[in-house]
Amino acid sequence: MSIISTFIRGSLGVNRLLVAALLVGGASMTSAQTVTVRGAVEDVGPTFVMSCTPLTLVGAGVNLNAVLGQEVEAVGTVIGPNLLSISSVTPVTDVFEANKNAKVGGTLKLSVTGPAGRLEQFYFSLNSGFATAHAMGWFLGAAPLHLLAQGTIPATGKLEISIAIPNLPVLANLPMFFQDVRLPAGGGFVLGNADCITIQS
Fold first, then answer.
1. CA separation, residue 177 to residues 53, 67, 121, 146, 186 (Å)
2. How many CB atoms lie within 10 A of CB 56?
3. How far apart are CA 114 and CA 95, in angstroms?
4. Contact at 8 Å (CB) between 38 and 140?
5. Residues paired with 41 in a beta bridge
6. Are 84 and 113 within 8 A, CB to CB?
7. Which stretches of the chain are DSSP H helices?
8. CA 20 to 30 Å from 64, out of 1, 77, 96, 162?
9. pLDDT classification of 187: cutoffs 50, 70, 90
């Protein structure tokens, strides 16, 4: 399986109910809405942002400097477009990652840690965004949006998936944005953190 074949086929057995919830019925961005988001806290000049997203974070009595560079679960209130006022923040260890050194003709490696037996879906888009779905943060642009891979976390607590990147020069410098969706055995879904890469030549 390669990235190009995913573009051509459109999806890999996409959970259509989930996509409908994210893109149609459940996705919104309303001011004063409380939302839970996951991701790495970064600083850009005088402001804090959530890595690989357009989301700016404002600490409402929360010291964001204390979690700078860490993966967190944060709860806050939407106070404007791509702007979240954070009321609580907790570091987390179950994290989704894509390898930053992916190259044309090489391999894209996706990994996520978490409890054994949890089904994981890895989505990607060529652009980022911010919307809320069931009071959680969704960070991928709506078009194009693809289910790139899925799998179940093994007993080791870490799921790793490798995907071939075709040896096509047109892919060099292509930005890719990812987010994992967690499907617990008991039903429902949890939106994980975003990650992003630029395919190297």
1. 9, 23, 14, 11, 28
2. 18
3. 8
4. no
5. 50
6. no
7. 3-9, 16-20
8. 96
9. confident
Query: β-pairing, 56-59 with 83-91?
Result: parallel
SS3 at position 18: helix
DSSP state, 13?
S
Secondary structure of residue 118 in the 3-state scheme: coil
Entry field: residues in the chain: 201
Q: Which backbone phi and psi does 186 adopt, to 5 degrees? A: -80, -5
The residues with which 194 forms a beta bridge, in sequence order, are: 179
CB 38 within 8 A of CB 135: no
User: Degrees (nearest 5) of the Cα angle 175, 38, 120?
Assistant: 75
- The DSSP secondary structure of 172-195, one letter per residue, reads TT-EEEEEEEEE-TTS--EEEEEE
Omega into 144 within 30° of 0, i.e. cis? yes
The tokens for 129 are 């965004």
User: Are the C-beta atoms of residues 175 and 198 closer than 8 Å to each other?
Assistant: yes
Task: Report the predicted TM-score, pTM, of the whole model to 2 decimal places.
Answer: 0.85
Contact 187, 195 (CB under 8 A): no
